[in-house]
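debug: dumping io for the single-chain case to check the tokenizer round-trip. Nothing else runs in this session.
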Amino acid sequence: MQLLPILIALAQLLDAAIRYLAFSRKVTEKATRKLFLYSSLWCVASVFVYEIFFAKFYVDASTYKLVLFIGWIPYFIICAKLIPWGLSQHFFVFGMGVMCSLIQHTIGAFFILSFVNLSESELIFIEAATYLALFVIFLPVCGYFFFKLLPSREFFNLRPQGIYIALLPLIICSAHLIRLADDVLIHSWAERLSRFYLPIVFFFFYRYILNAVKNFYELQRLERNQTRLEEQLTALKEYDSLMTENSKKISVMRHDLRHNYNLINTLLESGDIDKALEHIRNRKEGLP
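debug: decoded output
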């Protein structure tokens, strides 16, 4: 068996693991175990699939790129199925993963230029090995970046802003992906440098988006707090009005009770018991 399918399969598994980190803080342990199991099973299966594919169609730039372009699909389906957060967030995370891959492949291309005298299949093997090595080297940085990647889920639920932001990384990468869909392994300097320029611009733009999102939700929080305070103030005013009204009613009742007690006391002192009892009965009948 060739080593190239193994290198590609391991690189794609690491790509999927890095993208998973964006969701890891709010994913159940059960879903994480399933994600690891299914991804690992596909990684092993993909080694044999790629081996058969390369054996039938040979190893060249076009077949190598085809494997890279379609190899992400099973991992994307597994992640989207087991982490039902909405396709907007999955497309956004995938687009950011594509950007990181472009940068790493571009960095690796500078190293491959030292071996231009080798055959195309040998250059492809070196490119795959270099990409995997660079991925391992940059794993802490990429892991930290993706772990902090996603803003609040509510942001992607906004329409249409959430959809625009979710698709923006893929839209930015699409021009490069279209240019890469050829049978050329190493492109010109201008094209390689542009792969640095656009992602870096987007990363700064994305930092601005995160700050805007933070300010947006902070403003929403302040508005909710203001609404709650206004509701509480209205409730306090109603309570104060009710207490004032009840106080007046209690004062009237106290006055009536004092008058009745004084009248009964006067009737009893004068010995007019019948009138006193009649007054009590009348007051009793007047009660609700």
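debug: round-trip ok. The radius of gyration is 37 Å.
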